[in-house]
Every structure is written in C-alpha cells, then in structure tokens.
Amino acid sequence: MKKLLFAAAVCLLAACNEELGPEYETPPVFDEVTFTTATQPDGVVDPVKVDEIVTVNATVSCPYKVRQVWLAYFVDGDESDVKTTNPYNYDATTVTFKERIPGQKAGAKVSFQVLARSDYVFMWTQTYTYKVEGGEDEEKPNPDLPDEN
Questions:
Q1: Is residue 26 over pLDDT 70?
Q2: pLDDT band at residue 143 under the 50/70/90 scheme
Q3: How many other CB atoms sit within 10 Å of the CB of residue 112?
Q4: First-to-final CA distance of the chain
Q5: CB-CB contact of 29 with 123 (8 Å)
Q6: Nearest to residue 73, comparing CAs of 112, 38, 30?
Q7: Could you tell me the CA-to-CA distances from 1 to 8, 10, 14, 109, 147 in Å, in that order?
Q8: Whether pLDDT at 76 is above 80
C-alpha cells in the first residue's frame, strides 16, 4: 500500500510540474515506409494483384524510445470501417516494423497509415494508397472489334 501511495504521489508531482521535459513533446519519427508484395518485392507498383498480401515496412525512431507501432487501413475510401492491427510492443530508440494487409477484391483501393507512440506522444504517417487490379477502371475489350489473337 505504501508503494502505491508513493507512486501516486510521484505521478501527482509530475502532473503539477509546469515545465515538462522533451520526452513529453518529442514524437516518434518515421524514417522510411515501404510496401511490397511477393510478386513485387522491390516495391509495389500499382496495381496489386487480386487477393495478394501487401507487406508494410517502417523504420521508426525516437530518442525517448518507441513503445508501440501498429497499422490502420481502410478500403474504398470507407473511413467508417478502419481496421487496425494489434500494436507491436517495443523498448528501443529505433525499430523496424513489419505488418501485412490481407489480399483484397478486384478494383479495391486500399489506404493505410502506420501509427507509433513513445511513452507520451503519438504520431502517424501520411496516408499511402494502392489499387488492386481489376474492376471498373480496367480497360475492357470492345465486343464490336475482332480479337487480336
């Protein structure tokens, strides 16, 4: 009980401190974010194939340690249906994060962000987007023209 009271007192003193250290203001930094597939290991070039898994890689650093990194994505612009992965827990100043986005249907437009947090600050990447081949945007053969085969 004494340890709990002591911990509470320390937290209260820290909360009352008007001058917080830089660890309260320094966000994690994303040094590099890439996304690839098994058929395009050197980088995704739109479009991605139907049902193909996309692997997202991110290098994240913070001088006050990266604590968690995770991925959020949504399909076809539906921001009301954002899916997130379970956060990976870390205790390092620089981490390499790797997560997969499941394969999607033809014509899907997938948007994603990588999110990270230190002990006190959250940060996220820009939104990255890729398209799954097939669907309405794909050029359809003209039935009035003969096959070229």
A1: yes
A2: low
A3: 23
A4: 82
A5: yes
A6: 112
A7: 11, 14, 20, 54, 82
A8: yes
pTM (two decimals) = 0.77
Residues counted in the chain: 149
HEC string for the chain: CHHHHHHHHHHHHHHHCCCCCHHHCCCCEEEEEEEEECCCCCCCCCCECCCCCEEEEEEEEEEEEEEEEEEEEEECCCCCCCEECCCEEEEEEEEEEEEEECCCCCCCEEEEEEEEECCCCEEECCCEEEEECCCCCCCCCCCCCCCCC
Tell me the two tokens of residue 6: 């002591």
- Closest listed residue to residue 125, CA positions, set 137, 140, 111, 145: 111
